[in-house]
Design brief:
Length: 80
């Protein structure tokens, strides 16, 4: 359901945004995936042209319905 996908997306966001900017999970080019409650949760991290800013893209897809996908992009700021 969309509610479960939204909750999983928010949980993944909270997990990633709470990590230190230099955490290896947030290295540019990093891709990770996991399965939870029948949903595939993926995230990718990319560098941006703005110093100390990383782009985090999260996608949540129902495993049995790959056409149904919820995505969000966030930006994480490093220390100045």
């Amino acid at each position: 359901t969309i509610l479960m996908a939204s909750t999983l997306l928010a949980d993944q966001f909270e997990k990633l945004i709470s990590m230190e900017y230099t955490h290896t999970e947030l290295d540019p080019g990093k891709q990770a995936a996991s399965v939870e409650n029948g949903f595939l949760i993926e995230h990718t991290t990319a560098a941006t042209q703005i110093p100390n800013i990383k782009q985090i893209h999260i996608a949540v897809t129902q495993s049995h319905s790959p056409g149904r996908r919820l995505t969000a992009t966030y930006y994480k700021r490093g220390a100045d």
